[in-house]
Design brief:
By secondary structure, this protein is of the alpha+beta class. The chain is built from four helices and six strands. It has a three-stranded antiparallel β-sheet. The radius of gyration is 17 Å and the shape is elongated. It comes from Arthrobacter sulfonylureivorans.
Length: 145
């Protein structure tokens, strides 16, 4: 059974000087300002599609990783995932790279099992699959000591 989530953006004006507001409709968590300048320069308290993608990817990856670990008989004490999304306008506008960094505390897991589980989560995360056209998605995974 599918679950649907929704968000909307109301934009006014042209791309360079216009602005908009993105609202998280399903959760009701808020409405956030978006501008081209916030997307390509400094955010100045506004968000961007790339920041929203980063949030989606980091949360999806953490969920997928925790599930893969559980299936392998391990429970993570903590998983912290950071996603950095590069928006490149030098050769047309595109998301050129996503860097996932994960630091986790997983009692009793070997380094090899940790790394293979981390890679499996990167490949199996539904958001990773949705972003498959991004030229580079890298993963830096390390166990906390």
């Amino acid at each position: 059974m599918a679950t649907t989530r929704s968000a909307s953006t109301n934009w006014k004006g042209d791309l360079a000087s216009g602005s908009g507001q993105t609202t998280f409709e399903s959760s009701g968590i808020g409405t956030y300002d978006v501008t081209w300048k916030a997307r390509t320069e400094q955010s100045e308290g506004k968000t961007s599609p790339e920041e929203l993608i980063a949030a989606a990817h980091a949360s999806c990856y953490s969920m997928a990783f925790s599930n893969i670990l559980k299936q392998a008989g391990h429970t993570a004490e903590s998983i912290k995932t950071t996603a950095e999304v590069d928006f490149d306008t030098s050769d047309g506008a595109q998301i050129s790279e996503i860097r996932l960094t994960v630091r986790a505390t997983v009692p009793g897991i070997s380094e090899d099992d940790f790394q293979s589980s981390a890679q499996a989560a990167k490949e199996g995360c539904p958001v990773s699959k949705a972003l498959a056209s991004v030229p580079s998605i890298t993963l830096d995974a390390a166990l906390n000591s």
